[in-house]
Amino acid sequence: MKDFGYSKAQEQYDRQLPERYSRKPACICSGCGEEMHLFDRGFRFDDKIYCDYCVEPITLTEEELY
């Protein structure tokens, strides 16, 4: 029984990388240089953009200040 190239087409489709690997970055992190994409979490500080890994929110305590 002939499959008219269906198995080869299915094999090519299965080997494709997911879309998330082919997206173009929206910007570059000013801290580590990592690519950032649309809807990634980031922080703006002094007109620079940082990724979630370079900046972490903290609660100020006396230990943090001294």
Task: Please characterize this protein's 3D structure.
- It is a single chain.
- By secondary structure, the chain is α+β, with helices and mostly antiparallel strands.
- Helices cover 21% and strands 18% of the residues.
- It is built from two helices and four strands.
- It has helices spanning 6-15, 62-65, and strands at residues 27-28, 35-36, 42-45, 48-51.
- The chain has a two-stranded antiparallel sheet. A two-stranded antiparallel ribbon has the order 3-4.
- The longest helix has 10 residues, at 6-15.
- It is rod-shaped.
- The chain starts with 5 loop residues before the first helix and ends with a helix.
| Rg over C-alpha atoms, rounded to the nearest angstrom | 22 Å
Characterize the biggest β-sheet.
2 strands, antiparallel
Q: Report the structural category.
A: alpha+beta
Helicity level: 10-25%
Please work out how many helical segments DSSP would assign: 2
Query: What percentage of amino acids are in beta strands?
Result: 15-25%
Shape: rod-shaped
User: Average pLDDT, to the nearest integer?
Assistant: 84
Q: Tell me the number of strands.
A: 4
User: Which stretches are poorly predicted, pLDDT < 50 over at least 5 residues?
Assistant: none
Order of helices and strands: HEEEEH
- Strand order within the widest sheet? 1-2
End-to-end C-alpha gap: 78 Å
Short overview:
The protein has 66 residues and is an alpha+beta fold.
Descriptive labels:
two-stranded antiparallel sheet; 66 residues; alpha+beta; two-stranded antiparallel ribbon; 2 helices
